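Progress narrative, work stream C.
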Amino acid sequence: MAGLLNILLVAEESAGIRLLRALLRTEHRIVAVMTSTTGPSKTSSMASVATRAGLDIWPPSRVRDPALARELRAAGVDLILNAHSLYLIHEEVLRAPSIAAFNLHPGPLPRYSGLNCPSWAIYRAERTYGVTVHRMSPRIDAGPIAYQTTFDIDEAATGLTLTAKCVSVGVPLMRQLVEVAARDPAAIPAIEQDVGQRKYFGREVPRNGALIWSESASQIARFVRAFDYYPFASPWGHPQALYEGQHIGVVKAVQTRAKTGTPPGTLRRGPSGIMEVAAADEWLALHLVHAGGRHIRPDQLLRDGTRLEDGTKT
Protein backbone atom coordinates (compact mmCIF):
# COMPACT_ATOMS: atom_id res chain seq x y z
CA MET A 1 0.00 0.00 0.00
CA ALA A 2 1.46 3.31 -1.07
CA GLY A 3 0.05 5.27 1.85
CA LEU A 4 -2.41 5.06 4.71
CA LEU A 5 -5.38 7.38 4.63
CA ASN A 6 -7.31 9.19 7.33
CA ILE A 7 -10.99 8.76 6.51
CA LEU A 8 -14.13 10.39 7.85
CA LEU A 9 -17.17 8.19 7.18
CA VAL A 10 -20.59 9.86 7.00
CA ALA A 11 -23.11 7.09 6.52
CA GLU A 12 -26.39 5.38 7.36
CA GLU A 13 -28.28 2.17 6.70
CA SER A 14 -26.96 -0.99 5.07
CA ALA A 15 -24.78 0.98 2.66
CA GLY A 16 -22.96 2.55 5.58
CA ILE A 17 -22.60 -0.73 7.44
CA ARG A 18 -21.16 -2.55 4.43
CA LEU A 19 -18.80 0.29 3.63
CA LEU A 20 -17.63 0.53 7.25
CA ARG A 21 -16.94 -3.19 7.38
CA ALA A 22 -15.00 -2.96 4.13
CA LEU A 23 -12.89 -0.12 5.53
CA LEU A 24 -12.26 -2.03 8.75
CA ARG A 25 -10.61 -4.77 6.68
CA THR A 26 -7.99 -2.26 5.50
CA GLU A 27 -5.19 -0.58 7.41
CA HIS A 28 -6.57 2.91 6.82
CA ARG A 29 -7.52 4.97 9.86
CA ILE A 30 -11.17 5.87 10.35
CA VAL A 31 -11.04 9.18 12.17
CA ALA A 32 -14.72 9.04 13.12
CA VAL A 33 -18.10 7.79 11.97
CA MET A 34 -20.89 10.34 11.62
CA THR A 35 -24.18 8.47 11.90
CA SER A 36 -27.50 8.48 13.71
CA THR A 37 -27.59 6.90 17.16
CA THR A 38 -31.37 6.97 17.57
CA GLY A 39 -34.29 5.91 15.44
CA PRO A 40 -35.11 2.68 13.61
CA SER A 41 -32.74 -0.25 14.01
CA LYS A 42 -31.64 -0.07 10.37
CA THR A 43 -29.85 3.21 11.16
CA SER A 44 -28.87 2.62 14.79
CA SER A 45 -27.15 -0.63 13.80
CA MET A 46 -24.63 1.49 11.89
CA ALA A 47 -23.69 3.10 15.19
CA SER A 48 -23.57 -0.34 16.82
CA VAL A 49 -21.02 -1.61 14.31
CA ALA A 50 -18.90 1.51 14.82
CA THR A 51 -19.12 1.19 18.60
CA ARG A 52 -18.05 -2.46 18.54
CA ALA A 53 -15.07 -1.44 16.41
CA GLY A 54 -14.05 1.14 19.02
CA LEU A 55 -14.59 4.10 16.70
CA ASP A 56 -15.61 7.61 17.66
CA ILE A 57 -19.19 8.50 16.69
CA TRP A 58 -20.06 12.09 15.90
CA PRO A 59 -23.54 13.53 15.30
CA PRO A 60 -24.17 13.59 11.54
CA SER A 61 -25.76 17.04 11.77
CA ARG A 62 -22.32 18.49 12.42
CA VAL A 63 -21.52 18.28 8.70
CA ARG A 64 -23.64 21.43 8.33
CA ASP A 65 -21.32 23.37 10.65
CA PRO A 66 -18.39 25.09 8.89
CA ALA A 67 -16.42 24.88 12.15
CA LEU A 68 -16.06 21.13 11.57
CA ALA A 69 -13.65 21.92 8.73
CA ARG A 70 -10.97 23.12 11.15
CA GLU A 71 -11.30 19.93 13.18
CA LEU A 72 -10.95 17.75 10.09
CA ARG A 73 -7.84 19.62 8.93
CA ALA A 74 -6.31 19.25 12.39
CA ALA A 75 -7.00 15.51 12.26
CA GLY A 76 -5.37 15.26 8.85
CA VAL A 77 -8.46 13.87 7.15
CA ASP A 78 -7.69 12.81 3.59
CA LEU A 79 -11.10 11.58 2.46
CA ILE A 80 -14.71 12.13 3.41
CA LEU A 81 -16.83 9.18 2.30
CA ASN A 82 -20.59 9.72 2.29
CA ALA A 83 -23.06 6.83 1.94
CA HIS A 84 -26.82 7.30 2.24
CA SER A 85 -26.61 10.19 4.70
CA LEU A 86 -29.12 12.89 3.81
CA TYR A 87 -27.45 15.78 5.64
CA LEU A 88 -26.15 18.50 3.34
CA ILE A 89 -22.44 18.96 3.97
CA HIS A 90 -21.28 22.55 4.31
CA GLU A 91 -19.02 23.82 1.54
CA GLU A 92 -16.19 24.53 3.99
CA VAL A 93 -16.36 20.95 5.26
CA LEU A 94 -16.25 19.61 1.70
CA ARG A 95 -13.00 21.52 1.16
CA ALA A 96 -11.38 20.26 4.38
CA PRO A 97 -9.97 16.84 3.34
CA SER A 98 -6.57 16.82 1.64
CA ILE A 99 -7.92 14.75 -1.28
CA ALA A 100 -11.69 15.26 -1.58
CA ALA A 101 -15.14 14.25 -0.39
CA PHE A 102 -16.95 11.50 -2.29
CA ASN A 103 -20.55 10.29 -2.28
CA LEU A 104 -22.00 6.86 -3.06
CA HIS A 105 -25.17 7.72 -4.97
CA PRO A 106 -27.81 5.03 -5.66
CA GLY A 107 -28.44 6.04 -9.24
CA PRO A 108 -26.80 6.69 -12.61
CA LEU A 109 -25.78 10.32 -12.65
CA PRO A 110 -26.63 12.73 -14.13
CA ARG A 111 -29.99 11.21 -15.19
CA TYR A 112 -31.02 10.23 -11.67
CA SER A 113 -29.94 12.74 -9.04
CA GLY A 114 -31.66 13.65 -5.80
CA LEU A 115 -33.90 11.55 -3.58
CA ASN A 116 -35.51 8.10 -3.85
CA CYS A 117 -34.01 7.49 -7.27
CA PRO A 118 -34.47 3.68 -7.24
CA SER A 119 -38.20 4.18 -6.74
CA TRP A 120 -38.37 6.71 -9.56
CA ALA A 121 -36.54 4.34 -11.89
CA ILE A 122 -39.08 1.57 -11.26
CA TYR A 123 -41.99 3.98 -11.60
CA ARG A 124 -40.62 5.22 -14.92
CA ALA A 125 -40.22 1.64 -16.20
CA GLU A 126 -36.47 1.83 -16.66
CA ARG A 127 -34.85 -1.42 -17.80
CA THR A 128 -31.31 -0.51 -16.78
CA TYR A 129 -30.02 1.42 -13.81
CA GLY A 130 -26.74 2.18 -12.09
CA VAL A 131 -24.77 3.46 -9.14
CA THR A 132 -22.26 6.31 -9.04
CA VAL A 133 -19.34 7.44 -6.91
CA HIS A 134 -18.77 11.15 -7.43
CA ARG A 135 -16.86 14.03 -5.91
CA MET A 136 -19.10 16.09 -3.69
CA SER A 137 -19.77 19.72 -4.54
CA PRO A 138 -22.08 22.36 -3.05
CA ARG A 139 -24.69 21.43 -5.63
CA ILE A 140 -26.36 18.11 -4.78
CA ASP A 141 -25.17 15.10 -6.83
CA ALA A 142 -23.47 17.36 -9.36
CA GLY A 143 -19.74 16.78 -8.82
CA PRO A 144 -17.43 15.00 -11.25
CA ILE A 145 -17.93 11.24 -11.55
CA ALA A 146 -15.14 8.98 -10.32
CA TYR A 147 -16.73 5.57 -10.92
CA GLN A 148 -20.05 4.32 -12.25
CA THR A 149 -21.54 0.90 -12.97
CA THR A 150 -24.79 0.07 -14.76
CA PHE A 151 -26.89 -3.09 -14.60
CA ASP A 152 -30.24 -4.50 -15.68
CA ILE A 153 -33.29 -4.02 -13.44
CA ASP A 154 -35.02 -7.26 -12.48
CA GLU A 155 -38.63 -7.28 -13.65
CA ALA A 156 -39.81 -7.98 -10.07
CA ALA A 157 -37.58 -5.31 -8.49
CA THR A 158 -38.97 -3.25 -5.63
CA GLY A 159 -37.69 -0.01 -4.17
CA LEU A 160 -35.96 -2.05 -1.48
CA THR A 161 -34.36 -4.68 -3.73
CA LEU A 162 -33.13 -2.11 -6.25
CA THR A 163 -31.61 -0.04 -3.44
CA ALA A 164 -29.94 -3.19 -2.11
CA LYS A 165 -28.53 -3.87 -5.57
CA CYS A 166 -27.06 -0.37 -5.64
CA VAL A 167 -25.38 -1.04 -2.29
CA SER A 168 -23.92 -4.40 -3.36
CA VAL A 169 -22.57 -2.89 -6.58
CA GLY A 170 -21.60 0.47 -5.10
CA VAL A 171 -19.53 -0.53 -2.07
CA PRO A 172 -16.86 -2.18 -4.27
CA LEU A 173 -16.64 1.09 -6.21
CA MET A 174 -15.93 2.92 -2.95
CA ARG A 175 -13.26 0.33 -2.11
CA GLN A 176 -11.72 0.95 -5.50
CA LEU A 177 -11.74 4.68 -4.84
CA VAL A 178 -9.89 4.21 -1.54
CA GLU A 179 -7.31 1.94 -3.14
CA VAL A 180 -6.58 4.42 -5.92
CA ALA A 181 -6.50 7.35 -3.48
CA ALA A 182 -3.93 5.53 -1.37
CA ARG A 183 -1.67 4.89 -4.39
CA ASP A 184 -2.07 8.15 -6.30
CA PRO A 185 -4.91 10.62 -5.63
CA ALA A 186 -4.28 12.28 -9.00
CA ALA A 187 -5.29 9.00 -10.68
CA ILE A 188 -8.87 9.21 -9.38
CA PRO A 189 -11.09 9.81 -12.43
CA ALA A 190 -12.99 13.10 -12.53
CA ILE A 191 -15.52 13.03 -15.36
CA GLU A 192 -17.63 16.16 -15.54
CA GLN A 193 -21.36 15.50 -15.67
CA ASP A 194 -23.42 16.50 -18.71
CA VAL A 195 -25.78 19.05 -17.20
CA GLY A 196 -28.05 18.70 -20.21
CA GLN A 197 -28.82 15.13 -19.10
CA ARG A 198 -29.40 16.03 -15.44
CA LYS A 199 -32.73 15.16 -13.85
CA TYR A 200 -33.25 16.00 -10.18
CA PHE A 201 -35.89 14.28 -8.04
CA GLY A 202 -37.05 15.92 -4.83
CA ARG A 203 -39.39 14.82 -2.07
CA GLU A 204 -42.46 14.69 -4.31
CA VAL A 205 -44.39 11.41 -4.63
CA PRO A 206 -45.97 10.36 -7.95
CA ARG A 207 -49.70 11.23 -7.91
CA ASN A 208 -49.38 11.57 -4.12
CA GLY A 209 -49.48 7.78 -4.06
CA ALA A 210 -52.96 7.46 -5.58
CA LEU A 211 -53.75 4.11 -7.20
CA ILE A 212 -55.83 4.19 -10.39
CA TRP A 213 -57.50 0.84 -11.07
CA SER A 214 -58.33 1.69 -14.70
CA GLU A 215 -54.62 1.41 -15.53
CA SER A 216 -53.18 -1.84 -16.83
CA ALA A 217 -52.16 -4.53 -14.36
CA SER A 218 -48.51 -4.07 -15.30
CA GLN A 219 -48.70 -0.32 -14.61
CA ILE A 220 -50.35 -0.84 -11.23
CA ALA A 221 -47.96 -3.60 -10.18
CA ARG A 222 -44.99 -1.42 -11.13
CA PHE A 223 -46.47 1.52 -9.20
CA VAL A 224 -46.79 -0.64 -6.09
CA ARG A 225 -43.27 -2.06 -6.47
CA ALA A 226 -41.80 1.44 -6.70
CA PHE A 227 -43.20 2.17 -3.22
CA ASP A 228 -42.27 -1.20 -1.72
CA TYR A 229 -39.56 -1.18 0.96
CA TYR A 230 -41.31 -3.74 3.17
CA PRO A 231 -40.56 -4.59 5.98
CA PHE A 232 -38.90 -1.17 6.27
CA ALA A 233 -40.72 2.15 6.06
CA SER A 234 -41.09 3.44 2.52
CA PRO A 235 -39.93 7.01 1.83
CA TRP A 236 -43.09 7.38 -0.28
CA GLY A 237 -45.46 5.67 2.15
CA HIS A 238 -47.88 3.14 0.63
CA PRO A 239 -49.88 3.47 -2.60
CA GLN A 240 -53.37 4.53 -1.56
CA ALA A 241 -56.86 3.31 -2.42
CA LEU A 242 -60.27 3.80 -0.83
CA TYR A 243 -62.30 0.93 0.56
CA GLU A 244 -65.76 1.71 1.91
CA GLY A 245 -64.62 5.23 2.73
CA GLN A 246 -61.41 4.10 4.44
CA HIS A 247 -57.93 4.86 3.14
CA ILE A 248 -55.87 1.71 2.76
CA GLY A 249 -52.35 1.16 1.52
CA VAL A 250 -51.48 -1.56 -0.97
CA VAL A 251 -48.08 -2.94 0.03
CA LYS A 252 -47.72 -5.90 -2.33
CA ALA A 253 -49.61 -6.63 -5.55
CA VAL A 254 -48.62 -9.15 -8.22
CA GLN A 255 -49.86 -9.72 -11.76
CA THR A 256 -51.77 -12.97 -12.23
CA ARG A 257 -51.86 -12.80 -16.06
CA ALA A 258 -55.54 -13.79 -15.78
CA LYS A 259 -57.66 -11.64 -18.09
CA THR A 260 -60.72 -9.80 -16.82
CA GLY A 261 -63.57 -7.76 -18.25
CA THR A 262 -64.83 -6.88 -14.79
CA PRO A 263 -65.06 -3.17 -13.85
CA PRO A 264 -61.69 -1.96 -12.52
CA GLY A 265 -61.43 -2.07 -8.74
CA THR A 266 -63.74 -5.07 -8.35
CA LEU A 267 -62.57 -7.54 -5.71
CA ARG A 268 -62.77 -11.33 -5.80
CA ARG A 269 -61.24 -14.28 -4.04
CA GLY A 270 -58.99 -15.82 -6.67
CA PRO A 271 -58.55 -19.50 -7.51
CA SER A 272 -55.69 -19.81 -5.00
CA GLY A 273 -57.76 -18.18 -2.24
CA ILE A 274 -55.88 -14.86 -2.43
CA MET A 275 -57.86 -11.64 -2.77
CA GLU A 276 -57.59 -10.15 -6.25
CA VAL A 277 -58.52 -6.78 -7.71
CA ALA A 278 -59.47 -6.06 -11.31
CA ALA A 279 -57.25 -3.75 -13.33
CA ALA A 280 -58.14 -2.60 -16.85
CA ASP A 281 -56.97 -5.86 -18.39
CA GLU A 282 -56.01 -8.43 -15.74
CA TRP A 283 -56.57 -9.49 -12.17
CA LEU A 284 -53.94 -8.44 -9.62
CA ALA A 285 -53.25 -10.61 -6.58
CA LEU A 286 -53.15 -8.59 -3.36
CA HIS A 287 -50.64 -10.07 -0.91
CA LEU A 288 -50.40 -7.38 1.75
CA VAL A 289 -52.25 -4.19 2.65
CA HIS A 290 -51.88 -1.52 5.32
CA ALA A 291 -54.89 -0.30 7.28
CA GLY A 292 -55.47 1.00 10.78
CA GLY A 293 -51.75 1.52 11.32
CA ARG A 294 -50.75 -2.10 10.66
CA HIS A 295 -49.96 -4.54 7.89
CA ILE A 296 -52.63 -7.18 7.37
CA ARG A 297 -53.64 -9.90 4.94
CA PRO A 298 -56.13 -8.51 2.42
CA ASP A 299 -58.75 -11.16 3.27
CA GLN A 300 -58.87 -9.80 6.83
CA LEU A 301 -60.36 -6.57 5.50
CA LEU A 302 -61.58 -6.92 1.92
CA ARG A 303 -64.67 -8.86 0.85
CA ASP A 304 -65.44 -10.74 -2.35
CA GLY A 305 -67.69 -8.74 -4.67
CA THR A 306 -66.95 -5.32 -3.19
CA ARG A 307 -64.81 -2.63 -4.80
CA LEU A 308 -61.64 -0.69 -4.23
CA GLU A 309 -61.92 2.91 -5.33
CA ASP A 310 -59.08 4.99 -6.77
CA GLY A 311 -56.87 6.80 -4.30
CA THR A 312 -57.09 10.57 -3.99
CA LYS A 313 -54.34 12.62 -5.64
CA THR A 314 -54.57 15.53 -3.20
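Work stream C, second folded protein:
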Amino acid sequence: MQVKLKSTEWEIGSVLGTGGFGSVFEAKSPNGDLAAAKFIPKKPGAKREMLFEDSLADVRNVIPILDTGEDDDHWIIIMPRASHSLRDALEKGPLGLDDARRVLEDVADALADLKGKGIVHRDLKPENVLWLEGAWCLADFGISRYAEAATAASTNKYSWTYPYAAPEQWRLERATSATDIYALGVMGFELLNGSRPFTGNDSELREAHLHNPVPPSNAPKKLGWLIEECLEKSPEARPSPADFRRRLDLSLKGESAAGLSLWKTPTKPRHRNGRKSPDRIRWL
Protein backbone atom coordinates (compact mmCIF):
# COMPACT_ATOMS: atom_id res chain seq x y z
CA MET A 1 0.00 0.00 0.00
CA GLN A 2 1.26 3.50 -0.85
CA VAL A 3 0.31 6.68 1.05
CA LYS A 4 1.13 10.22 -0.07
CA LEU A 5 1.86 12.49 2.88
CA LYS A 6 3.14 16.07 3.21
CA SER A 7 6.77 15.36 2.36
CA THR A 8 6.76 12.27 0.20
CA GLU A 9 5.07 8.98 -0.64
CA TRP A 10 5.58 6.02 1.67
CA GLU A 11 5.24 2.30 1.11
CA ILE A 12 3.39 0.73 4.03
CA GLY A 13 4.33 -2.81 5.03
CA SER A 14 3.36 -5.25 7.76
CA VAL A 15 2.04 -4.30 11.18
CA LEU A 16 4.59 -3.74 13.96
CA GLY A 17 2.16 -3.32 16.82
CA THR A 18 -1.19 -1.98 17.97
CA GLY A 19 -2.32 0.05 20.94
CA GLY A 20 -5.05 2.23 22.34
CA PHE A 21 -4.25 5.09 19.94
CA GLY A 22 -3.78 3.25 16.67
CA SER A 23 -1.59 0.75 14.85
CA VAL A 24 2.06 1.01 13.76
CA PHE A 25 3.28 -0.38 10.45
CA GLU A 26 6.58 -0.75 8.65
CA ALA A 27 7.19 2.14 6.24
CA LYS A 28 9.73 2.75 3.47
CA SER A 29 10.52 6.02 1.70
CA PRO A 30 11.23 6.25 -2.06
CA ASN A 31 14.99 6.23 -1.35
CA GLY A 32 14.70 3.08 0.77
CA ASP A 33 14.81 4.62 4.26
CA LEU A 34 12.98 2.47 6.79
CA ALA A 35 10.60 4.05 9.28
CA ALA A 36 7.42 3.39 11.26
CA ALA A 37 3.98 4.65 10.25
CA LYS A 38 1.40 5.24 12.96
CA PHE A 39 -2.22 5.11 11.75
CA ILE A 40 -4.56 6.86 14.18
CA PRO A 41 -8.30 6.30 13.59
CA LYS A 42 -10.14 9.57 12.99
CA LYS A 43 -12.24 10.19 16.06
CA PRO A 44 -12.67 13.13 18.44
CA GLY A 45 -9.31 14.19 19.89
CA ALA A 46 -7.31 11.82 17.67
CA LYS A 47 -5.39 14.60 15.90
CA ARG A 48 -3.80 15.85 19.12
CA GLU A 49 -0.45 14.12 18.58
CA MET A 50 0.06 15.94 15.28
CA LEU A 51 -0.43 19.30 16.98
CA PHE A 52 2.95 18.92 18.72
CA GLU A 53 4.91 18.30 15.51
CA ASP A 54 6.64 21.70 15.47
CA SER A 55 6.89 22.13 19.25
CA LEU A 56 8.88 18.92 19.69
CA ALA A 57 11.44 19.67 16.99
CA ASP A 58 14.21 20.79 19.38
CA VAL A 59 13.29 18.70 22.43
CA ARG A 60 15.99 16.26 23.50
CA ASN A 61 15.29 12.54 23.48
CA VAL A 62 11.92 12.57 21.79
CA ILE A 63 11.09 10.37 18.79
CA PRO A 64 10.93 12.91 15.92
CA ILE A 65 8.06 13.15 13.46
CA LEU A 66 9.37 12.76 9.91
CA ASP A 67 6.15 13.24 7.97
CA THR A 68 2.42 13.58 8.53
CA GLY A 69 -0.79 13.31 6.57
CA GLU A 70 -4.08 11.49 6.39
CA ASP A 71 -6.26 9.11 4.43
CA ASP A 72 -10.02 8.78 4.54
CA ASP A 73 -10.07 7.05 7.91
CA HIS A 74 -6.78 7.85 9.67
CA TRP A 75 -4.31 10.51 10.68
CA ILE A 76 -0.85 9.22 9.74
CA ILE A 77 2.48 9.97 11.45
CA ILE A 78 5.86 8.76 10.16
CA MET A 79 8.61 8.26 12.75
CA PRO A 80 12.06 6.68 12.80
CA ARG A 81 11.94 2.99 13.60
CA ALA A 82 13.33 2.33 17.08
CA SER A 83 15.13 -0.91 17.83
CA HIS A 84 13.19 -1.74 21.01
CA SER A 85 11.19 -0.28 23.89
CA LEU A 86 12.03 -0.01 27.56
CA ARG A 87 9.27 -2.56 28.18
CA ASP A 88 11.17 -5.00 25.97
CA ALA A 89 14.28 -4.44 28.11
CA LEU A 90 12.32 -4.96 31.34
CA GLU A 91 10.95 -8.28 30.13
CA LYS A 92 14.37 -9.70 31.05
CA GLY A 93 14.13 -8.43 34.63
CA PRO A 94 15.45 -5.40 36.57
CA LEU A 95 18.11 -3.30 34.90
CA GLY A 96 21.60 -2.89 36.27
CA LEU A 97 22.35 0.40 37.98
CA ASP A 98 24.27 1.88 35.03
CA ASP A 99 21.53 0.96 32.55
CA ALA A 100 18.80 2.30 34.86
CA ARG A 101 20.73 5.53 35.32
CA ARG A 102 20.95 6.01 31.54
CA VAL A 103 17.18 5.62 31.20
CA LEU A 104 16.47 8.09 33.99
CA GLU A 105 18.99 10.61 32.61
CA ASP A 106 17.57 10.52 29.08
CA VAL A 107 13.94 10.70 30.15
CA ALA A 108 14.61 13.49 32.67
CA ASP A 109 16.35 15.54 29.96
CA ALA A 110 13.30 15.12 27.72
CA LEU A 111 10.92 16.10 30.51
CA ALA A 112 13.01 19.18 31.33
CA ASP A 113 12.73 20.38 27.72
CA LEU A 114 9.00 19.58 27.62
CA LYS A 115 8.46 21.56 30.81
CA GLY A 116 10.25 24.51 29.23
CA LYS A 117 7.75 24.39 26.37
CA GLY A 118 4.79 23.92 28.68
CA ILE A 119 4.01 20.41 27.40
CA VAL A 120 2.85 17.54 29.63
CA HIS A 121 3.13 14.01 28.23
CA ARG A 122 0.52 12.50 30.61
CA ASP A 123 1.15 8.85 29.65
CA LEU A 124 4.79 8.16 30.48
CA LYS A 125 5.47 4.41 30.75
CA PRO A 126 8.07 1.88 29.52
CA GLU A 127 6.05 1.15 26.39
CA ASN A 128 6.43 4.81 25.37
CA VAL A 129 10.20 4.97 25.94
CA LEU A 130 12.10 3.72 22.88
CA TRP A 131 15.80 3.13 22.13
CA LEU A 132 16.80 5.20 19.11
CA GLU A 133 20.31 6.11 17.94
CA GLY A 134 21.97 5.62 21.31
CA ALA A 135 19.37 7.29 23.54
CA TRP A 136 16.12 6.47 25.31
CA CYS A 137 13.45 8.64 23.70
CA LEU A 138 9.84 9.49 24.51
CA ALA A 139 7.12 8.51 22.07
CA ASP A 140 3.32 8.61 21.80
CA PHE A 141 2.11 12.12 22.53
CA GLY A 142 -1.48 11.07 21.83
CA ILE A 143 -2.91 12.49 25.08
CA SER A 144 -0.30 15.17 25.69
CA ARG A 145 -1.39 18.73 26.30
CA TYR A 146 -0.03 22.19 26.93
CA ALA A 147 0.09 22.70 30.69
CA GLU A 148 -1.83 25.98 30.60
CA ALA A 149 -4.44 24.85 28.07
CA ALA A 150 -7.91 23.77 29.01
CA THR A 151 -8.44 20.06 28.42
CA ALA A 152 -10.70 19.52 25.45
CA ALA A 153 -13.93 17.60 25.93
CA SER A 154 -12.71 15.20 23.25
CA THR A 155 -9.79 14.08 25.41
CA ASN A 156 -10.55 10.86 27.25
CA LYS A 157 -9.89 11.56 30.92
CA TYR A 158 -9.15 7.89 31.56
CA SER A 159 -6.75 7.33 28.66
CA TRP A 160 -3.70 7.35 30.90
CA THR A 161 -2.16 4.10 32.12
CA TYR A 162 -3.32 3.30 35.65
CA PRO A 163 -0.12 1.77 37.16
CA TYR A 164 1.80 4.97 36.27
CA ALA A 165 -0.95 7.51 37.00
CA ALA A 166 -0.29 10.26 39.54
CA PRO A 167 -2.75 10.99 42.37
CA GLU A 168 -3.97 14.15 40.64
CA GLN A 169 -4.92 12.10 37.58
CA TRP A 170 -7.01 9.80 39.74
CA ARG A 171 -8.68 12.91 41.19
CA LEU A 172 -9.27 14.18 37.61
CA GLU A 173 -7.26 17.32 38.35
CA ARG A 174 -5.06 19.26 35.92
CA ALA A 175 -1.91 17.43 34.86
CA THR A 176 1.39 19.30 35.09
CA SER A 177 5.06 18.48 34.63
CA ALA A 178 4.91 17.03 38.16
CA THR A 179 2.50 14.41 36.80
CA ASP A 180 5.19 13.20 34.41
CA ILE A 181 7.74 13.20 37.24
CA TYR A 182 5.46 10.89 39.24
CA ALA A 183 5.37 8.44 36.32
CA LEU A 184 9.16 8.71 36.09
CA GLY A 185 9.31 7.75 39.77
CA VAL A 186 7.16 4.67 39.11
CA MET A 187 9.44 3.73 36.22
CA GLY A 188 12.56 4.33 38.31
CA PHE A 189 11.24 2.01 41.00
CA GLU A 190 10.40 -0.60 38.36
CA LEU A 191 13.79 -0.36 36.65
CA LEU A 192 15.66 -1.28 39.82
CA ASN A 193 13.18 -3.67 41.43
CA GLY A 194 11.61 -5.48 38.50
CA SER A 195 8.13 -4.56 39.70
CA ARG A 196 6.08 -1.40 40.14
CA PRO A 197 5.55 0.13 43.59
CA PHE A 198 1.78 -0.37 43.41
CA THR A 199 -0.14 -3.26 41.85
CA GLY A 200 -3.67 -4.61 41.85
CA ASN A 201 -6.96 -4.06 40.10
CA ASP A 202 -8.22 -0.60 39.16
CA SER A 203 -9.76 0.21 42.55
CA GLU A 204 -6.71 -1.11 44.41
CA LEU A 205 -4.40 0.96 42.21
CA ARG A 206 -6.48 4.07 42.85
CA GLU A 207 -6.29 3.55 46.62
CA ALA A 208 -2.55 2.85 46.50
CA HIS A 209 -1.62 5.85 44.36
CA LEU A 210 -3.78 8.15 46.45
CA HIS A 211 -2.90 6.92 49.93
CA ASN A 212 -0.34 4.11 50.26
CA PRO A 213 3.34 4.70 51.20
CA VAL A 214 6.04 3.71 48.76
CA PRO A 215 7.35 0.21 49.57
CA PRO A 216 11.05 -0.43 50.25
CA SER A 217 13.27 -0.34 47.17
CA ASN A 218 16.44 -2.11 46.09
CA ALA A 219 17.86 1.20 44.87
CA PRO A 220 20.98 2.72 46.47
CA LYS A 221 19.95 4.81 49.46
CA LYS A 222 20.12 8.32 47.98
CA LEU A 223 18.65 7.24 44.66
CA GLY A 224 15.86 5.52 46.58
CA TRP A 225 15.12 8.77 48.40
CA LEU A 226 14.99 10.65 45.11
CA ILE A 227 12.62 8.14 43.53
CA GLU A 228 10.46 8.25 46.64
CA GLU A 229 10.30 12.03 46.40
CA CYS A 230 9.08 11.70 42.81
CA LEU A 231 6.24 9.60 44.22
CA GLU A 232 5.04 12.21 46.70
CA LYS A 233 1.25 12.45 46.75
CA SER A 234 1.38 16.24 46.45
CA PRO A 235 2.61 17.49 43.05
CA GLU A 236 4.27 20.49 44.71
CA ALA A 237 6.50 18.18 46.78
CA ARG A 238 8.05 16.46 43.76
CA PRO A 239 11.31 17.63 42.16
CA SER A 240 11.30 19.41 38.82
CA PRO A 241 12.80 17.49 35.88
CA ALA A 242 15.95 19.66 35.97
CA ASP A 243 16.32 19.20 39.73
CA PHE A 244 15.79 15.46 39.38
CA ARG A 245 18.50 15.31 36.72
CA ARG A 246 20.99 17.23 38.87
CA ARG A 247 20.30 15.18 41.96
CA LEU A 248 20.39 11.90 40.05
CA ASP A 249 24.07 12.53 39.32
CA LEU A 250 24.74 13.35 42.96
CA SER A 251 22.81 10.34 44.27
CA LEU A 252 25.17 7.95 42.54
CA LYS A 253 28.42 9.68 43.49
CA GLY A 254 28.18 8.49 47.07
CA GLU A 255 28.86 11.92 48.50
CA SER A 256 27.44 15.42 48.34
CA ALA A 257 29.16 17.92 46.10
CA ALA A 258 30.81 20.90 47.73
CA GLY A 259 28.59 23.89 48.10
CA LEU A 260 25.27 22.02 48.14
CA SER A 261 22.86 22.71 50.94
CA LEU A 262 22.18 19.95 53.45
CA TRP A 263 19.26 19.91 55.78
CA LYS A 264 18.31 17.65 58.61
CA THR A 265 14.82 16.33 59.25
CA PRO A 266 13.26 18.62 61.87
CA THR A 267 12.47 17.35 65.36
CA LYS A 268 8.82 17.06 64.40
CA PRO A 269 8.90 14.25 61.77
CA ARG A 270 8.00 15.28 58.24
CA HIS A 271 5.33 13.10 56.66
CA ARG A 272 6.19 11.57 53.28
CA ASN A 273 3.72 9.50 51.31
CA GLY A 274 1.60 8.83 54.36
CA ARG A 275 4.42 7.79 56.73
CA LYS A 276 6.94 9.58 58.89
CA SER A 277 10.34 10.18 57.39
CA PRO A 278 13.29 8.68 59.26
CA ASP A 279 15.64 11.06 61.01
CA ARG A 280 18.29 11.42 58.32
CA ILE A 281 20.40 13.98 56.55
CA ARG A 282 18.74 14.96 53.28
CA TRP A 283 20.49 16.56 50.32
CA LEU A 284 19.14 19.08 47.85
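The first strand starts at residue 2 and ends at 4. No further action is required on this item.
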